[in-house]
Known about the structure:
- With 264 residues, this protein is an alpha/beta fold.
- The protein folds into two domains: 4-224, P-loop containing nucleotide triphosphate hydrolases (Rossmann fold); 226-264, no CATH class.
- It contains eleven helices and ten strands.
- It has helices at 48-55, 77-83, 99-109, 114-127, 132-137, 145-157, 175-190, 202-208, 226-233, 238-246, 251-263; strands at 4-19, 22-34, 37-41, 63-68, 71-72, 84-87, 163-167, 194-198, 211-216, 219-224.
- The N and C termini lie far apart (56 Å).
Amino acid sequence: MTADPQRMAIRTRQLMKHYGAQIAVAGIDLEIPSGQLVGLLGPNGAGKSTTIKMLIGMLRPTFGSAEVGGHDVVRDPLAVKKIVGYVSETGAVFESLTGWEYLNLVASLYHIEESEASARIDRFCQFFDLTPIDLREKKLGAYSKGMRQKVVITAALLHNPEIVFFDEPLNGLDANAALMLKTLITSLAREGKTIVYCSHVLDVVERMVERVVIVHQGRILEDGTVQQILERSGERSLEQAFNKLTSTQNLLQRAEDFARALAQ
């Protein structure tokens, strides 16, 4: 299934977030059609995570508006939370619970019946190669970073959300698990889910997404397909275009110069 331009999954108008005098998001106008896989990129502190947290109802905008799945994020945040999934870059969980307890807690929050929740959790754990012992006997605090990330991703997808936000989802995953997750994400998009994917691994983004939105200093700098951005920037890779748009210097040259200085 391709994106449906007639139905906007996400729409923002002059979306802003201020923390006193500090401006985290400076006015973002964005429309994402239902079923599109979008890469949301930017350097550290660009406003990506803040934007996502406003879109899922975790943060209240200072100014502007946002609709997710047709629901206003300020007026109807619970309706938004019912239809979105969110994988945060921190991978935060309740460390005193087992993976099984945590995922059942999440399922209960979404009012998934116990038998259905168990079946869904088992399917995800088989997919991610989490053993019954890991899931039912180990506390999350004893999990490796990769195991914990698998549980966080499962929790985000357990209620079959329409719209999913991934913020650095490959953190801690080994090569095989990362490949499976990337394939799962692109497959979900083909099935009609709207995906917003944030990552600093730009070569992965370049291969996965249909559209790239580059944010810097709380504003959108670029918006288009990878090919369109390469053509407008005159660069040969998304990584080089990103550097050109968001940095005041050639970072590749800086690294080469630094390496030569170390060798002297």
